[in-house]
Amino acid sequence: MSILRERMAAARLLGQAMVVVLLLGAVLGVSACRQRTPEERLVEAQQLLQERQIPLAVRRIQDIIAEHPEEDIAIDARFLLAEVYMGLGREDSVRNAIEQLEAVVAQTSIEDPAGQQALTMITELYLMLGEQERAIEHSASIVELAQGVPELEDEARMIHNILLISIGEDEQLEEARAYLQEMVTKAPNEAIRHQAREILADHYRRLEQWEDSNEVYQLYLDEFPDDPVNPQLVMAQALNLRSAGEEEASEELFEQGAEAMRVALEEKENERQRAEILGNLAQFYDIFEKPERSEEMFRQIMAEQPATLAAINAQFNIGQLYFRRGEFDRAIEHYQQMARENPESHIGQTAQNWVRLLETAQEEGLDVEDFMEEMPAEPGVAPEMAPGMAPGEAPTAPPMDPGVPDPAAPMPEDAPAMPPAPGTGP
Asked: CA-CA distances (angstroms) from residue 199 to 162, 180, 373, 390?
């Protein structure tokens, strides 16, 4: 082969190699510069928010909305942007949040969960701004949007009338009362009947119109005489009579309701149902200032269902009975024994938290009222009957202290085993 031909062959090989290098470079370049998806960019914006780089995060979110205005990602972006604006708390930022949520409403429908959420949030933001009439008007517009979708319409009407009975005036208030009273007996859904009854009864109770509150309960009792919740409604009536100063009639009616609940208890074999009835009885005895009977009910739960979450809740609630009576030493002793019975466990940690709280209260000379005002949301707090909560609703597990796992949650494999029967304390 001549020198010229050798050089030409070498040039061809070099050229081929260069083509390969260029191709590889192009492929690698495309890979390195791959466009991030809108979803990835939204996650990055969320990370910026966590890092408190709010202006930069807002710009990123706004870019996503501008570039993909008709896509689902824009809905998620608008919700996130609305949350940012709401968090700023200024009037102008709250109005910006409303603007974003209105855009979500325009992009969705009343049957879309995202649209429903946006509509509800707008009402809440008008209330945040103190624009009550605007909130009512907006709530009424949701009812109109929901017409023709029975389940949504019923829910929208209920929410609207709850709003009216909370902040409405004159004719609006009367409209809400009439609607809720009708729903107490006529609502097609049992849950709505219970909700309407408790909201209306509590409305009158807050106005100290005890007789009107009891009439709401009586409407339900007359219409549904066999409902298992009725004994608790009778006890609620007794509490209203007590608030009205009718002590003798109150005591008689209360015992009537309590006896009916005890009879119902004897008919139950299911452990969960028995714990529910006993827990409700305990709450009513406590509210009626019969703490000894309340403790008796909690201890019955502990005896019947040892080593269960129901027993643990009951034991925490007994400690609450003690300190609400001002018996801080007794409550501390109770929680200390719980901690000793459950060493190296979530239950023991929670009990020890209570010990520290109560000892601090004693050191600072707090009385019961001051302690209850300053007490954070701590573990083992027995849920009181909240306004609008149906009497007889099962007590839930006590809220846990931040950082302390639920005592009912599975323990790590290397964690000490739970004692066989916690809840046998003083």
From this structure: 8, 8, 25, 9
**HEC states along the chain?**
CCHHHHHHHHHHHHHHHHHHHHHHHHHHHHHHCCCCCHHHHHHHHHHHHHCCCHHHHHHHHHHHHHHCCCCHHHHHHHHHHHHHHHHHCCHHHHHHHHHHHHHHHHHCCCCCHHHHHHHHHHHHHHHHCCCHHHHHHHHHHHHHHHCCCHHHHHHHHHHHHHHHHHHCCCHHHHHHHHHHHHHHHHCCCHHHHHHHHHHHHHHHHHCCCHHHHHHHHHHHHHHCCCCCCHHHHHHHHHHHHHHCCCHHHHHHHHHHHHHHHHHHHHCCCCHHHHHHHHHHHHHHHHHCCCHHHHHHHHHHHHHHCCCCHHHHHHHHHHHHHHHHCCCHHHHHHHHHHHHHHCCCCHHHHHHHHHHHHHHHHHHCCCCHHHHHHHCCCCCCCCCCCCCCCCCCCCCCCCCCCCCCCCCCCCCCCCCCCCCCCCCCCC
What's the predicted TM-score (pTM) here? Answer: 0.69
Burial of 290 by CB count in 10 Å (0-12 exposed, 13-18 middle, 19+ buried)? middle
Report pLDDT digits (tens) over 256-314.
999 999 999 999 989 999 999 999 999 999 999 999 999 999 999 999 999 899 999 99
- Which residues lie below 8 Å from residue 132, measured CB to CB, with a gap of 6+? 126, 167
How far lies 244's CA from each of 97, 115, 233, 285, 287, in Å? Answer: 45, 45, 17, 18, 15
Residues 129 and 91 sit within 8 Å (Cβ to Cβ): yes
- Return the structure tokens found at 107: 């992009």
pLDDT tens-digit readout, 111-134: 999 999 999 999 999 999 999 999
Tokens matching residue 44: 């990055």
